[in-house]
Specification:
Blueprint: E1 16-19, E2 24-30, E3 36-40, E4 54-58, E5 67-72, H1 75-78, E6 81-86, E7 92-98
């Protein structure tokens, strides 16, 4: 079974941080009627270049079914600790899945 946790609060750095070996996926569930944006905070560099933070849109819930997104964090860009923030925490939870 998965344990889903809510973001830590409002404002910057409101989301999640977890150990990242490259084998983890962040599964984000959205039970709200509005879409959410998850920002993957880039901490590393690839080929000497630091890429911009990546964003992923999590669909809104529809007909009682939550929207969801599965997000991978390549170690080269996101380091050994992955960080992600959400645009609005209402109805949002996440779980880390090791594959």
């Amino acid at each position: 079974s998965l344990t889903f946790t809510a973001p830590t609060g409002a404002g910057a750095n409101n989301g999640w941080a977890f150990s990242n070996t490259g084998d983890e996926l962040l599964m984000v569930l959205n039970t709200d009627e509005n879409t959410k944006t998850v920002t993957m905070d880039t901490l590393g560099s690839v080929g000497g270049l630091t890429p911009a933070d990546t964003t992923v849109t999590v669909p809104a819930a529809a007909a009682g079914v939550p929207g969801f997104a599965l997000i991978a964090f390549p170690v080269a860009a996101f380091s050994g600790t992955a960080n992600a923030d959400v645009s609005n925490a209402t109805g949002v939870t996440a779980a880390v899945i090791k594959v």
